[in-house]
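Student: Please help interpret what follows.
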Amino acid sequence: MSENGPIRVAQIMGKMNNGGVESVVMNYYRHIDRSKVQFDFFVDEDSTAIPREEIENAGGRLYIIPPYQRLHRYLPALVRLFRENRYRIVHAHINTLSVFPLFAAKLAGVPVRVAHSHSTAAKGETKKNILKYTLRPFSRVFATDYAACSRYSGEWLFGKRAMERGDVTVFNNAIDLDRFRYDEAVRSQVRGELGLEGKFVIGHVGRFCFQKNQEFLIDIYREVYKEEPNAVLLLIGGGEDRAKIEEKVNAITEGKVFLLGNRADVDRLYQAMDVFVLPSRYEGLPVVGVEAQAAGLPCVFSDAVTKDVCLTPTAGFCRCEEPTRAWAESILRLAGTERSGGEDALRQKGFDIRLQGRCLTEYYMALLDAAER
């Protein structure tokens, strides 16, 4: 803590559009010791879901800046704000793109500059991957410290040797375990609200985009429905592929797919599900996978998701290349799985945000102390 109050850390968020990274950072923000550390959020002006009220009510500051696609405006804005606020720590969460805000931080004389890896890459996003692989060698140039959501994502951005040397600090995508604890009464209530009594409910939470692979999930559901006519699919989220997903759902004549949009009560919706499915093409460590297991849900993840996400005995994987039939069989095998809370297993494995929030507070204090010696 400084003489004038808590240390202010500039959190570089990129676009806040109800994505997983934003969820992770906000979870930590709610549980850091704000008498010692306070967050200021730097958010692109084309964001669609900025939690302004929560940030400001907790004492944080919000800076709306030009999007990183306009570097000629983005970099000068950051340098000016970093200097004006005399930040001593900048923490960037935009993966390979973090090279740009960390360059601005170096120009502004910020002593502690953290690059944080939250994801990886996969085939199919040619333009994005060209940019990712072009920038990846520069991920460490302007950073003084490295963090990641999992060993997998840390190795992808910073290299296996950096992980083996202990250069990268892993911060689990921890959550409020009490909020997601399984509750039979809530399950009955939500299933009644949605008309799901007697249904086998397959659930998914994620931004509608190429990475999350919802079109494939709809095809998987159709295979499940052939064997289990009581099966329904809940899709929770929004995003750039929303219209495409709606079109595919509308073309289905069999079964029932619910498009529930972005929801603030996703913790309640997990209770109504019977199986959680995440067929992502690539991931770091998806926070929705942690949430689903905390709610006691059996889960099927694609093998493109880090194995670190498998935290409970009823979580497993299916290869991305497997046909929809194989995915359907994996899901159907989980029908009738006894539901129980998974919060104890997650707490033992370091996914309790209360503990992890304290760890992040101590991390910042230690970095600053080392930088100012």
